[in-house]
Design brief:
Strand content: 25-35%
Number of helices: 5
Largest sheet: 6 strands, antiparallel
Radius of gyration: 18 Å
Structural class: alpha+beta
Distance between the termini: 17 Å
Order of helices and strands: HEEHEEEHEEEEEHEEEH
Amino acid sequence: AELQQSAQIISQRLTLLHISAKVRVVGDHLAVTHAAALSRHTLAQVVQVGDAQVRRILQVQDEVPPDHTFAPRATTFATLATAMRAWPHQDCRPGLPSATPAHDYVGACDPADSQHFLLGSRSLVRRDFARAVAFTDNNVGLDGVLLTVTHAATAKARAITTSALLRPSPPNCAPPTGCDEVALTLDGVVLAQPRVIAPAPGRMLQFGVQRGSPPAHVLAAILNTPVLPSSFTLA
């Protein structure tokens, strides 16, 4: 049942990208028969689980600590005290991201595993997103997504962005007050980290995607479809 549900969601994502393809269940795998327009790289991006969240950035670490321990891409901490003890001694490594509970503090990395972020416990989660639209700003060479949150999540979005106002910028910020940036994560990886210069205007949040992230139109397709019930292997 989960594979069939995943096949339907992936088909929806490909349709939003205007790619003609057939997704079917073959044993305990999924098989995708597609046109030449769909590269293996794009397909690998489309089949991500799609668990997206928006969180405050509390601290950023660029260098590998000398006494680091390798951890999955997303590590969760039940309390800030636990996070502040453990997070500075952890680093990033390639591998499947882990699920990130909405109310835990999170240690996460960028797509290149070159920056390590400590993220706050208050978050916007997938059920808070109403719509995602890809955009390109040719004036500054920026691709990104414009997220519209639901009416019910408007106050939460404003609280997250307001709490980042007038905070120091990385690397001069630390818990508990944190930084002047918020993070958009996908499956435990930080894809965008915009600086907050004003509270969220109404229900809109704008994110420019970082190098190594899925292209904005692919990210929008993922955000406009349900989260996959689980990760899987393509046949």
